[in-house]
Amino acid sequence: MSPDKVITLSDKRHDLPFSKGLLAQSFTSIGVSPSKAYSIAIAIQQDLRDRDELSVSMQRLRALATDALGKMAGEPYAIRYRKLYELSKLDRPLVVLIGGTTGVGKSTIATEVAHRLGITRIMSTDSIREVMRGIFTRDLMPAIYESAFNAWRGLRVPVPHGANPVIVGFREQTAAVTTAVKSLIERSVLEGDSLVLEGVHLVPGYIGAGQFKNARIVQLVIGVADEDVHRSHFYIREVQTDGVRPFERYRANFGNIRVLGSYIEDMAHEHGIPVLMSHQLDDTIADVIEHIVNSAIEEEYDAHG
Q: Are the CB atoms for 204 and 217 separated by under 8 Å?
């Protein structure tokens, strides 16, 4: 069979050309390396040509892809692929909330997760706080004018005896930002769009999944156990931003940042929200996606008995 023969994907309405590039991209979304993903896609293409199977349904292609993944990448990848397809068929928008203290890698993880899950809406709570600054003056809402780890500077009332001002200030800022976060989620759900939201203000207990009946809410917290590894993230951040986010500023406030991390993780444990410890980036992203997919599918199955 000539390698130039065109393979088409057929369904009840129309035919589309087969693309090994798009197929490979779907494999990378479950953590397969780009080179391996492309090799698997080429193997599937060649298998179809060898069979003279030049018109194939999407269901048939998924079956071939799942089988090839199991043989060439390993059964765990085949399982992930099946689950990712199940997720795409669910009938409610998915809202992913990724929390954790400053510098644990939330934004990097959120961006990659959104890309792999095909979610185009992604937002950070810092961006929301920045918008709020344009609406509320410092006199009206001073807490939002400080970084999360220094929100105590905006407190207008005495700190209760024995309380940690870092936590008290952060809680006040989080409460203010959470109001806007809920509005953003409500808007996204109303429009039927999935959303990935990340930020230090996504503290377990402030937003409950039951508040949004028409969405699948999946919340998790990212942590970094090793202080030296955590500290190194800020140096990398300074280099990547050409000094816009200077290492020294975070180094000087590192103690407060770790305090917030412990508080957020304690809240996660209290409310049954998983804390995923960040390690090697690709592995962490794979863990996050696996948790999101499993949680969303389980919730949907529970809802339908």
A: no
Q: What total number of domains does the chain contain?
A: 2
Tokens of 239: 């280099």
The whole-angstrom separation of Cα 183 and Cα 154 is 24
Among the candidates 67, 88, 109, a domain finishes at: 88
**CA-wise closest residue to 199 among 108, 279, 111, 101:** 101
Find the domain containing 51 and state its range. Answer: 8-88
Distances (CA, A) of 215 to 122, 203, 244, 261: 16, 19, 37, 28
pLDDT tens-digit map of 273-284: 999 999 888 889
For residue 300, what pLDDT band results from cuts at 50, 70 and 90?
low
* pTM to 2 decimal places: 0.86
Query: How distant is the alpha carbon of residue 131 from its chain centre?
Result: 22
CA distance 20 to 39: 9
Q: Based on the fold, state whether residues 192 and 84 are members of the same structural domain.
A: no
Answer whether residue 266 is part of any domain. Answer: yes
Same domain, 160 and 174: yes
Q: If you average pLDDT over every residue of the chain, what do you get?
A: 90
Spatial neighbors of 207 by CB under 8 A, at least 6 apart, are: 97, 178, 181, 182, 185, 217, 219
Do both 161 and 218 map to the same domain?
yes
* Cα 188 to Cα 52, 199, 212, distances in angstroms: 45, 17, 11
Does the residue 3 lie in any domain? Answer: no
pLDDT band at 1 (very low <50, low <70, confident <90, very high): very low
